[in-house]
Amino acid sequence: MMPRIRMSFAEQAGGRRDPAGAARWMRAGLLALLAMSEPALANHPGDRLGEAMAAKESSFEHARRNPPGLQLRAVDGTEFDLRDLEEKVVVLSFVPAGCGTSCADQQALLARVREAVNDTLMRDLAAFVTVMAHGSPTAAGGGDADRLDLVPREDGAVAELRADWARMSDRGAEGPIAYVLGRGAQEAGLFHGSGFARVNMIRYINGLTNAHPPEPGPLDRIRRFFE
């Protein structure tokens, strides 16, 4: 379904146009067409979605291991549990101390992905979570409903969490990884570094929002009981 585009009376009459509004209209329209033009990708659940994206994007890796849990207490008192977001597609990233340019570049690219997602019907179906060390630079918009920036209380927690999650990768963890988690956090696509095409992450998020959320199996229920 194409998004509803509202135009001012002046725009409809061919009068003075708002350049920023026109650019936003074009971006929303192009993204909507993109979503409709990728039905094969959007309808691929699980491994097939990952295989389809791996064929398009060399920086993408479909995880063969289940994502670990993520629970932490932030310096501002926030008690975070990843399971609270299991009804959404989650884009998770880590910014440990001293990460430098590689993390900054990835965060800038993720901010552009988030901006594009928010111009589509996916905006209510996705959340962006960044776990960062004290003093890490953050992009604007950290207080928005679809974005959560978390600074753990414990020193070194970000590096430990990053290493724990990086075990999902068969490529190693030399650079930052952005994890796109399907609903229920039972599968993940890994986008390495900042060289991936923004549109490919948007396609992958779109595919996950169209997939049916997986039902937890017996082992998942046992694991959650002890968490």
What does this 3D model show about the protein?
The protein has 8 helices and 8 strands; from the N terminus they run ααααββββαββαββαα. With 227 residues, the chain is an alpha/beta fold. The strands form 2 sheets. The protein has a 6-stranded mixed β-sheet, with helices on both faces. It has a two-stranded antiparallel sheet with strand order 2-3. It is globular and about 40 Å long. The chain starts with 8 loop residues before the first helix and ends with a helix. The model is unreliable at 1-16, 35-45 and 217-227 (pLDDT under 50).
Lay out the secondary structure.
Layout: H1 9-12, H2 19-37, H3 39-42, H4 46-56, E1 60-62, E2 71-73, E3 79-81, E4 89-95, H5 101-117, E5 126-132, E6 147-150, H6 157-166, E7 177-181, E8 188-192, H7 198-210, H8 218-226
Parallel strand pairs: 4-5, 5-6
Antiparallel strand pairs: 1-8, 2-3, 4-7, 7-8
Helix pairs in contact: 4-7, 5-7
Task: Briefly characterize the structure.
With about 230 residues, this protein is of the alpha/beta class.
The CATH homology group name: Glutaredoxin
Give the percentage of residues in beta strands.
15-25%
Q: The CATH topology is what?
A: Glutaredoxin
How many extended strands? 8
| CATH top level label | Alpha Beta
Q: Which CATH-level-2 architecture?
A: 3-Layer(aba) Sandwich
Counted by DSSP, the helix tally is 8
- Could you name the ranges where pLDDT drops below 50 across 5 or more consecutive residues? 1-16, 35-45, 217-227
What percent of residues adopt helix (DSSP H or I)? 25-40%
Rounded average pLDDT: 78
Question: How are the strands ordered across the major sheet?
Answer: 1-8-7-4-5-6
Question: Ends: how far apart?
Answer: 40 Å
Shape: globular
Order of helices and strands: HHHHEEEEHEEHEEHH
> What count of domains describes the coordinates?
1
Q: Based on helices, strands and strand pairing, what is the structural class?
A: alpha/beta
For the largest beta-sheet, the strand count, sense and barrel status come to: 6 strands, mixed
CA-atom Rg in angstroms: 18 Å
